[in-house]
Design brief:
By secondary structure, the protein is mainly α. It has six helices and no strands. The longest helix has 28 residues, at 118-145. The radius of gyration is 17 Å and the shape is globular. The termini are close together. The model has no long low-confidence stretch (mean pLDDT 90).
Length: 168
């Protein structure tokens, strides 16, 4: 994961204060692509795939609402914390550092499965890489702002709850 941090440093040097906006723009670009991809190409016609897509969408909605309620006034789309934002480590954030990103990945997975195309799956992977980069960037910003962030990030899983010892 150090390579992601190095790429983020290059991006931050190149874009300055606009780096977070670039990551958000990429995130919405990939979601927009998923909206317009015509279906076809992959044989995902089994009811299991439809069930997986519906389950992913349901999980996304539950996670997004729970994360939003846990964040309260600290909610923000951009990765840079607000100056007066409280460091949140309760509610859903007790188990997942970036549950909103997990929700975005889940809804995008549902969209990609509905496209039944390789383009949809590749686009989902591009979104996942973008959100991974965004989460690393946000984590670094929180470590600079809040003393407790480093320990929290070592203890709590990035996109999923941490089971056992896993390095971040």
């Amino acid at each position: 994961m150090q390579s992601i941090d190095r790429l983020n440093e290059v991006g931050e040097r190149a874009c300055g204060a606009y780096f977070g906006r670039l990551l958000v723009s990429l995130q919405f670009l990939w979601l927009g692509v998923l909206l317009v991809i015509p279906p076809g190409g992959l044989e995902l016609r089994s009811p299991i795939w439809a069930f997986m897509a519906t389950t992913a969408a349901t999980v996304a909605v539950v996670l997004a609402v729970w994360a939003y309620l846990s964040l309260g006034r600290s909610f923000r789309v951009r990765p840079e914390p607000l100056a007066n934002a409280a460091f949140v480590s309760s509610g859903l954030y007790r188990w997942i550092r970036h549950p909103m990103y997990t929700a975005v990945l889940a809804i995008a997975l549902s969209m990609a499965l509905h496209t039944r195309s390789w383009v949809g799956m590749v686009t989902w992977c591009a979104l996942a890489l973008t959100l991974l980069s965004k989460s690393h960037y946000e984590d670094a910003l929180w470590r600079a702002k809040e003393a407790a962030a480093g320990e929290y990030q070592r203890r709590v899983g990035r996109f999923l709850p941490r089971f056992g010892r896993v390095s971040s």
